[in-house]
Specification:
With 133 residues, the chain is mainly α. The chain has five helices and no strands. The two termini are 17 Å apart.
């Protein structure tokens, strides 16, 4: 191939290995952009699934945070509507907060699995661009 294409492939390999060592957001973004830079085909193949997967992971984290913060909403409701305080709401919100903590723990492992899967997907994509599987 051309020297520019070889340089792009080497840069992509470097950034993917960097993500394997430490999966920070900056390293992941650099690796994704390096792989996308290999060609226009990669823009569609890498960016589409990445946006969908990141949206699902972010939705899980937001869901977990919403459940954990539900007791605060019950207390705000008790302050605003002083005659409407109900112990059932308090205990149910505590149940939801516990569920949110469990969902958060699950999302931690899902996020780690997502990063590992992303690294494998990027390596696979680079190999496809190079012409081998």
């Amino acid at each position: 191939g051309s020297p520019q294409q070889i340089a792009k492939e080497m840069k992509a390999h470097y950034h993917i290995e960097k993500v394997s060592e430490s999966g920070t957001v900056i390293n992941i973004a650099r690796a994704v952009w390096a792989v996308i830079g290999l060609g226009f085909f990669n823009l569609i193949i890498v960016l589409g699934p990445l946006i969908a997967a990141v949206s699902i992971v972010c939705a899980g984290w937001i869901f977990s945070a919403g459940l954990v913060l539900s007791p605060i909403l019950v207390f705000m409701d008790a302050v605003i509507f002083q005659n409407g305080f109900n112990l059932f709401n308090l205990f149910f919100s505590i149940l939801l907060a516990g569920t949110g903590i469990l969902v958060g723990i699950g999302m931690y492992y899902v996020t780690r699995l997502f990063i590992k899967g992303l690294v494998h997907y990027l390596k696979f994509n680079v190999n496809i661009v190079k012409g081998g599987i």
